Automatic annotation (TrEMBL), chain A:
Pfam families: Cytochrome_B. This is Menaquinol:cytochrome c reductase cytochrome b subunit. The main subunits of the menaquinol:cytochrome c complex are a Rieske-type iron-sulfur protein (QcrA), a cytochrome b (QcrB) and a cytochrome c (QcrC). It is a multi-pass membrane protein. Component of the menaquinol:cytochrome c reductase complex. It is found in: Cell membrane. The lineage of its organism: Bacteria, Bacillati, Bacillota, Bacilli, Bacillales. It comes from Paenibacillus etheri. One of its GO terms (biological process) is respiratory electron transport chain.
Automatic annotation (TrEMBL), chain B:
InterPro entries: Rieske_2Fe-2S, Rieske_2Fe-2S_sf, Rieske_Fe-S_prot, TAT_signal. The chain crosses the membrane at residues 26-47. Belongs to the Rieske iron-sulfur protein family. Component of the menaquinol:cytochrome c reductase complex. The Rieske protein is a high potential 2Fe-2S protein. PANTHER family: CYTOCHROME B-C1 COMPLEX SUBUNIT RIESKE, MITOCHONDRIAL (PTHR10134). Keywords: 2Fe-2S, Disulfide bond, Electron transport, Iron, Iron-sulfur, Membrane, Metal-binding, Oxidoreductase, Transmembrane, Transmembrane helix, Transport. This is Menaquinol:cytochrome c reductase iron-sulfur subunit. It comes from Paenibacillus etheri. Residues 1-22 are annotated as: Disordered. Residues 102-171 form the Rieske domain. The main subunits of the menaquinol:cytochrome c complex are a Rieske-type iron-sulfur protein (QcrA), a cytochrome b (QcrB) and a cytochrome c (QcrC). GO terms for molecular function: 2 iron, 2 sulfur cluster binding; metal ion binding; monooxygenase activity; oxidoreductase activity, acting on paired donors, with incorporation or reduction of molecular oxygen.
Length: 223, 184
């Protein structure tokens, strides 16, 4: 049945070459843990992406209950976590995933570094990778404020002080991120918008660039 | 069209130069201009929208009665007071803290406990290893009684503007420290 549907579509749109191009490539021996177990270090990039997908999915579902408003944010998180079925799990996925994605990204970066995979012709992908790294940090920082508890509030104050310490631009940068002179209602809405729309959009475009370059240049050779 | 080559034979040196814009140039300018106009019309409202909070005028803050002058000692004491503030579409009250003391000459000053390293809250005499200092629990910044930065922090603790009225200390805006430099 599914085969028939697939064939019907394929006859009309010729989709086979598309997915072949994306997915039908042999895994070289030196990156296949089935051949050399130590090759598991090559999995960290894929694991980073896997957790990113979890973050995006769980985040999208969290916004069904979450309200970015100083009066209601905390209560909405409390509610979704303690009264909604599986709320603890979904928030837990997002909460722990946020740390895990940084860990995976770090391990992936170490692998690239120690296998020398950043060398020509892959320099641009290292740069894109670094941009991804900063966007991830941005997602972590903006997400951290959203539950609007004491930890969130004071962590954000410190974050904004870091922005404030940037030479020359600092004070303006801080106020722009803060949306005013205090960490308050407008900071929360700003951080929410950055967290769920702006930064994920930037992240996804960078990831597309990252993956296109990997396809073009192939995985780097064995040491 | 085929006469094009013949014309070159008729005017072998220079074809008469035409001052008009070419069709291609005209289209480039008009389409480019229209695109720029539409692009700017789309982006500018959003840019102005996002920077609005930093363009609001900041009025000088009011002075608020915080402590009775007779209660101020040479040992710094912590006082809290409330400040009405506008927070977007909310009116709220912020609770602020000041450490107030008088020096040997009897001059009263009030320090803000916001650490000048990265903004945690410092306390007075809260580190046994360094008595009679302000200490920040976050990364270990230390300050003297006058707020002078000893370690970690790049600047001395800020001060509140002070006024005295009818036996009360009134505090206003937070300003950079002026007393710490008196200490050699
Ligand atoms: C890789 C991407 C992401 C990272 C690293 C990340 C990180 C975080 C962090 C650290 C928190 C605070 C969680 C807590 O304190 O328990 C958070 C909260 C939140 N995030 Fe994300 N996030 C990501 C993507 C997204 C996306 C794509 C959305 C929505 C479309 C989203 C929606 C939310 C919401 C609604 C909250 C508040 C609820 C809560 O605090 O549990 N996140 N995020
Ligand atoms: S914030 Fe006070 S020492 Fe870093």
């Amino acid at each position: 049945m599914f085969k028939n549907i697939y064939n019907w579509i394929d006859e009309r749109l010729d989709v086979t070459p598309i997915w072949r191009d994306v997915a039908d490539h042999e895994v070289p021996e030196h990156v296949n843990p089935a051949h050399h177990f130590s090759a598991f270090v090559y999995c960290f990039g894929g694991l980073t992406f896997f957790i990113t997908v979890i973050q995006i999915l769980s985040g999208m579902f969290l916004t069904m209950y979450y309200v970015p408003d100083i009066i209601n944010a905390y209560a909405s998180v409390e509610y979704l976590q303690s009264s909604v079925a599986f709320g603890q799990i979904v928030r837990g996925m997002h909460h722990w995933g946020a740390s895990l994605v940084i860990v995976m990204m770090f391990l992936h970066t170490m692998r690239v570094f120690f296998t020398g995979s950043y060398k020509a012709p892959r320099e641009m992908n290292w740069v894109v990778g670094m941009l991804i790294f900063f966007v991830m940090l941005g997602l972590g920082l903006t997400g951290y404020l959203l539950p609007w508890d004491n930890k969130a509030y004071f962590a954000t104050k410190v974050t904004l002080e870091i922005a404030n310490s940037v030479p020359v631009m600092g004070p303006v940068l801080k106020e722009l991120m803060q949306g005013g002179t205090i960490v308050g209602a407008e900071t929360l809405t700003r951080f929410f918008a950055l967290h769920v729309f702006f930064l994920p959009a930037v992240l996804l475009s960078l990831l597309v660039g990252h993956f296109i370059m990997i396809r073009r240049q192939g995985i780097s050779g064995p040491l | 069209m085929s006469s094009h080559n013949d014309q070159q034979d008729i005017w072998p040196e220079q074809p008469p130069s035409r001052k008009e814009m070419s069709r291609r140039q005209f289209l480039t300018y008009t389409l480019g201009g229209a695109t720029a106009f539409m692009g700017a019309g789309t982006i500018l409202p959003m840019v102005r929208f996002v920077v609005d909070p930093i363009l609001h005028k900041k009025g000088a803050g009011d002075f608020i009665k915080v402590a009775e002058i007779s209660k101020i000692t040479e040992e710094p004491q912590e006082f809290t007071f409330e400040l009405k503030q506008k927070d977007g579409w909310y009116d709220s009250t912020a609770t602020l803290t000041a450490w107030i003391r008088k020096d040997a000459k009897g001059d009263i000053y009030a320090l803000s406990p916001i650490c000048k390293h990265l903004g945690c809250t410092v306390g007075w005499n809260n580190n046994k290893a360094h008595p009679d200092e302000y200490h920040c629990p976050c990364h270990g910044a230390r300050y003297t009684k006058l707020g002078k930065n000893l370690e970690v922090a790049p600047k001395p603790l800020d001060q509140y503007k002070t006024k005295f009225d009818n036996g009360w200390v009134l505090l206003g805006d937070i300003v950079p420290n002026t007393v710490a430099s008196e200490e050699a």
